[in-house]
């Protein structure tokens, strides 16, 4: 399988979008809604989106695996955002000009501070050696996940730095059906990849993983959950697919184009609810596959050690794993 695009920055919609002055279905307290028009985005057309690989867009939080102090680490998404005064000026400019273009930032004064170990995402533009914000007023970036940082405790639960492995959800290699597997993957195999952290305490847990008493989280490499019979990149066909197809019980689609371009569609772009019933991922069968012995995870404080007693067990639905921990 070819190496898929890394989600380092905001992925554009496969259609051109419009902004409506109505409450957002996706974000609380946001008094505008970004909706798709029926015109395909020129970026998607230039990347030949009709020949792209269609994959499931997951409802979680983005992560990244790369080096930190010469050791592979999981990194959490941390966008540098403007302070209140700068954000107020930015929104005023947007309202006056109906556009983000032409706004001038002072990166040193207009933005909140970031942790010392923060790094900007790939392809962030720089001016005079300093990263500059994107059209939305953010500077996408990452911070390393350390076990001592309680803010990222759910990220920490899926990685064991001593063993050098992470807990990953992916399709089974030896099955032709919809079976998934939860397995330990060496961080070296995930280096420079982005993944989605999903689970009990992420984005309202639409997939029904775990419980408050026994939280369950895992990483899903971006692009691994392929859509077998994707609809054409057509507004009406996509609307029908999301509402009528069993495969359409997903948050959205991300297309991985051959030149590395990524484009997406979210249900909210089409005026559709999410979640709407049980997501397809939650109802897929899953098997636990951990090859290590109990001694290997003896010092682990995360899920790798907790799931080891379930090694080899098969569950009828992904969300059923919570009942056995």
TrEMBL record:
Keywords: ATP-binding, Ligase, Nucleotide-binding, RNA repair
Purpose of the protein: Functions as an RNA ligase, in vitro. The ligation reaction entails three nucleotidyl transfer steps. In the first step, the RNA ligase reacts with ATP in the absence of nucleic acid to form a covalent ligase-AMP intermediate and release pyrophosphate. In step 2, the ligase-AMP binds to the nucleic acid and transfers the adenylate to the 5'-PO4 terminus to form an adenylylated intermediate. In step 3, the RNA ligase directs the attack of the 3'-OH on the 5'-phosphoanhydride linkage, resulting in a repaired 3'-5' phosphodiester and release of AMP.
The name this protein goes by in its record: RNA ligase 1
Cofactor: Mg(2+); Mn(2+)
One Pfam family of this chain: RLIG1
Cited PANTHER family: CHROMOSOME 28 C12ORF29 HOMOLOG, RNA LIGASE 1
UniProt organism field: Fundulus heteroclitus
Gene Ontology terms for molecular function: ATP binding; RNA ligase (ATP) activity
Enzyme class: ligase
UniProt lineage: Eukaryota, Metazoa, Chordata, Craniata, Vertebrata
Keyword Iron among record annotations: no
Gene Ontology biological-process entries: response to reactive oxygen species; RNA repair
EC nos: 6.5.1.3
Reaction catalyzed: ATP + (ribonucleotide)n-3'-hydroxyl + 5'-phospho-(ribonucleotide)m = (ribonucleotide)n+m + AMP + diphosphate
């Amino acid at each position: 399988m070819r190496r898929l695009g890394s989600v380092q920055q905001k992925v554009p919609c496969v259609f051109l979008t419009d902004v409506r002055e109505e409450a957002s279905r996706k974000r609380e307290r946001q008094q505008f809604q970004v909706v798709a028009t029926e015109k395909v985005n020129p970026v998607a057309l230039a990347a030949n989106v009709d020949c792209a690989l269609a994959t499931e867009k997951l409802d979680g939080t983005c992560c990244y695996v790369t080096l930190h102090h010469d050791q592979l680490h999981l990194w959490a998404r941390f966008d540098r955002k403007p302070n209140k005064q700068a954000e107020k000026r930015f929104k005023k400019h947007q309202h006056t000009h109906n556009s983000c273009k032409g706004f001038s930032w002072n990166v040193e004064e207009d933005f909140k501070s970031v942790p010392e170990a923060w790094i900007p995402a790939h392809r962030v533009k720089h001016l005079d050696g300093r990263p500059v914000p994107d059209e939305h007023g953010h500077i996408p970036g990452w911070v390393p996940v350390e076990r001592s940082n309680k803010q990222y405790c759910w990220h920490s639960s899926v990685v064991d730095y001593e063993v050098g492995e992470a807990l990953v959800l992916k399709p089974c290699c030896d099955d032709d059906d919809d079976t998934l597997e939860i397995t330990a993957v060496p961080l070296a195999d995930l280096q420079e990849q982005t993944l989605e952290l999903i689970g009990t305490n992420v984005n309202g847990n639409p997939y029904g993983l775990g419980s408050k008493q026994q939280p369950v989280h895992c990483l899903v490499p971006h692009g691994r959950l392929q859509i077998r019979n994707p609809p054409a990149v057509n507004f009406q066909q996509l609307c029908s697919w999301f509402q009528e197809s069993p495969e359409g019980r997903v948050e959205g689609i991300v297309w991985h184009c051959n030149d590395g371009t990524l484009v997406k569609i979210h249900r909210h772009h089409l005026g559709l609810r999410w979640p709407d019933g049980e997501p397809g991922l939650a109802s897929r069968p899953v098997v636990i596959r951990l090859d290590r012995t109990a001694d290997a995870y003896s010092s682990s404080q995360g899920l790798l050690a907790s799931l080891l007693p379930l090694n080899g067990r098969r569950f009828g639905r992904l969300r059923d794993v919570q009942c056995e921990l």
